[in-house]
Amino acid sequence: MTKSIPQARRAGKRPPPTSSAKPASSILPNTLHLAAHRLASALGVPFSVALVHAEAAGLGREVQ
What we know:
mainly alpha
């Protein structure tokens, strides 16, 4: 079986360690979404409703 040219170039090579890493902004948890998930589970309301109320209440804007 012959390999195509792109496969032959990649054979035995490892991708750079950062090639599949997520951007730094997506690694940090979104505090607004965390607060909304907690509200939704505690109150039994849909996440979208909890998200709107959490945003209106100013949750997730806390400075660390």
